[in-house]
Amino acid sequence: MFSKRLFYVLAASLWILIATGPCRAEAEKVDKTEKGESALSGEVSLSALSAYIWRGQELSRHSLVLQPSFTLNYGGISADLWGNWDSDPHGEGGERWNETDVSLFYGGKYRLLNYEIGYMSYNAVGGEDSQEVSLKLGIDVPLSPSLTVYREVMHDLYWYFLLTLSQSFPVSERLSIDLSASAGYLVSTDSEEYPEVGEDGGVTGGKFNNFHDGTLTVGFPYKILDNVYVTPALSYTFPLCGDARREMKYFSMTGRDSNFLYGGAIVTYSF
What we know:
By secondary structure, the chain is mainly beta. It has one domain (2-37, 49-57, 104-270). It contains three helices and 17 strands. It has helices at residues 2-20, 32-35, 242-251, and strands at residues 40-49, 53-54, 57-58, 65-74, 77-86, 97-110, 113-124, 130-139, 146-152, 159-170, 176-187, 195-197, 203-207, 209-219, 222-225, 228-239, 260-270. The strands form three sheets. It has a twelve-stranded antiparallel barrel with strand order 1-4-5-6-7-8-9-10-11-14-16-17. A hairpin with a 2-residue loop joins strand 4 (65-74) and strand 5. The longest helix has 19 residues, at 2-20. It is globular and about 55 Å long.
């Protein structure tokens, strides 16, 4: 059942992406070839969203979340500082500023293949901190398919595999349409952090090991200035199988939700 659902989601996404038009580079990114591979560049952004959903987990509810980000790039190295502010927090601790993440990446390309290795430190207020390493492989062809493997290395030691397809289409000199689809597979190594949930809604004592969450996103980047974009966006996250539906409900703030529709706007300044 879950494999058919995943197939239909990806097939539909592929059809939409191919039918809409030719591929285009992401509008909000700086053209690094014009600056040179070793040039220093960066980006400052602020996202205002109706929900904070991360890998199928509901981390906010009925509130405004603000997510500022600051990124510096030099050559193939990228460093990022990211945070989350919740207007009405429901999580542990009840702090409005409840997460600060630091990431470091190194990437490059060989012919059509692009790659990126990364390290992420997730620092949550009132919750457990976490650290991950990642490896991303992509192909520079239409739909920009990529597969990223994440490994938690601090205490949970889970694996998370993320397949992503994306495409951007010009509408005018200032406006474009960005479409993306992703599917995640979660391999838990801890029956408490990511448990298997039974039909009765209770944990079975087993560990989750199955397809997990899918996300469809549409964005409309609009160029205000040469280096300033505002992007209204809408996302839909849903379970990819029955195991995932029960697990996502189990971790949701009501214990009943496994599908999430959310959106907002992102303002980005590149330099």
